[in-house]
Amino acid sequence: MSFKTTEEHEALRSQIRKFAETEVKPIAFMLDQENSFPEEAVKQLGKMGLFGIPFPKEYGGMGLDQLSYAIAVEELSRVDGGTGVILSAHTSLGSWPIFAYGTEDQKKKYLVPLAQGKKLGAFGLTEPNAGSDASETETTAVFDGTQYILNGEKIFITNAPVAETYVVFAVTTPGIGAKGISAFIIEKDWEGFTFGDHYDKLGIRSSSTAQLLFHDVKVPKENLLGQEGEGFRIAMATLDGGRIGIASQALGIAQGAYESALDYSRERVQFGKAIGFQQGISFKLADMATKIRAARLLIYSAAELKETHENYSMESAMAKVFASETAMEVTNDAIQIYGGNGFLKGMDVERMYRDAKITTIYEGTSEIQRIVIASHIVGKPPKEELSAAKKKAGGAVTGERKKQIFAEGKSKEKVDALVAALKKDGFDFSIGIPIDTPIIDAERVVSVGKGIGTKENMKLGYDLAKAAGAAIGSSRPVAETLRYLPLNRYVGMSGQKFKGNLYIAVGISGAGQHLKGIKEAGTIVAINSNANAPIFKNADYGIVGDLFEIVPLLCKVLGSEEKTPAPPMVKMKKRTPKKLPPNYPIYVCGGCGHEYDQELGDEEGGIRPGTPFDQLPEEWTCPVCGDEKSVYIKS
Ligand code: CAA
After folding, report:
1. b/e map of 465-493 (b: 16 or more CB within 10 Å)?
2. How do residues 402-427 score in pLDDT, each as one tens digit?
């Protein structure tokens, strides 16, 4: 390694720095305040060719090296971390996997406009139940003979919904974990592909981040990226490169904060001299500069390894964990040097302090980086089995639920079936509680989501709450953004927790944050027109149908007459589905009576869950008494 950049690298740095200083820095505060995307600057960056830095010229790129790309992200992030990640997510995550794994046709069709800056790219891996453990992906892509049908959701996706091209990961072979995941190239305007709200974030507020929602999206088989089952490996390899990008973003943020604090330390005079000459501050500056230099060398070295096609997975993880933690420390010190002034809105160090935090989280948390680094040093730990509870819950955030969904038949039939099931479970709808009972004390709540539409339609929610003898609640956006209800009535991770007997979710799709607020609900009922809404996987009963048709019918069946005030309602036990007998044989050891259950496999014997008895290797022995496989008998 040369430990030095070339003249070309420094010329590129000057060009980008000039652009960043003149086109991005003056608007960085406004972008942050208004949570708005730097559309014009992004267009300009595209025209300058910066969206294709590390890709060959034949695919519309600049044909430069990985180090040039790292410098570009660093320089943009030096003035605005949000703009830096737009370039990083586009290049490393949205474009690189197409370059590395795409067919010639895919590269021509998708990589060329991405590299030319005509289109923006993004990467859809993270899901509510698959964050750090990306192998838990639940989005499915089912091949119907001609095309794949994509269903599911992705969360926290950088560049969505602005991006036009998405590399998305979905399960094509269920039940086999990481090896059942495949990658696809998805276009923004395909039918059934929609977006959730743009997140309101702590930092990098100029970058756009949203949820991806797939409902029966038809994906041509030509859009499979790589081979079926290769998706997890593609995701991991992509993230190795992405981590160089995020490390560069962190470095740029730290550099910007350091320079700002250094300038201030030269101007600010206390005790008769500039604070920069006082040891308390000069030592801080020395430490900041040292950490920044160490981070830079780690990043440039990882970029160089990538460029020369050597292994760089561990080095990029080292660069990311070190640079992101440096960004946290340096921005913190920068505010400290500024004193009270640094705490004020409008000061760049205040924004940089907030921007820095995400770099320790996305594209693999600091903890995941340490797992990656450690696995290169000490090897991979043995796989831990899914916890029994998680397995039983089938991935549902709200735990094990009945999932009895009434999707077929006329609306009235579905409503009758739901009410009959609830009554059979012991719900008495002649009694009720006041509609304004605090959520935490309420045994019944009817909660309304964004599916309710305009404010006038809230009447439907109130009517149903009265008919069900319940209090009224909502999802977070209905209270916080639409303001249809007071803030103390929204249910979710950051809102009220519902722990009562009956929760009826109307027009709520079931984002992870909402579901975490109803984990302890006795019975959950969902009413939603989208059969794939996550709420159904987390509900005991559900009706798939238009809420504007279902709710009035439900009110009628439950009875609109005044309810008898409920005595304190009896806490009803959560109704767990009856355990069905397995649809496969159980084998019992003739020696000790141990039962081999294929759902569990035999972790210690290296047998994956889901392995049928007849596929066990001949040398496999009973994990309890050590008898041979042949002594087992089918029960
Ligand atoms: N390159 C290529 N293949 C790799 C790989 C890599 N870096 N890492 C693992 N693999 C392969 C393994 O070789 C293995 O294949 P075999 O079974 O054939 O050997 C397979 O992938 C499974 O590997 P592991 O058993 O190591 O996988 P794991 O489930 O234990 O996970 C992990 C390892 C490192 C924890 C991984 O899950 C991980 O990196 N998690 C973090 C995910 C992440 O960074 N998410 C961020 C999402 S992107 C984002 O933030 C969005 C945005 O828009 C900014």
Report:
1. bbbbbbbbbbbbbbbbebebbeeebbbbe
2. 999 998 899 999 999 999 999 999 99
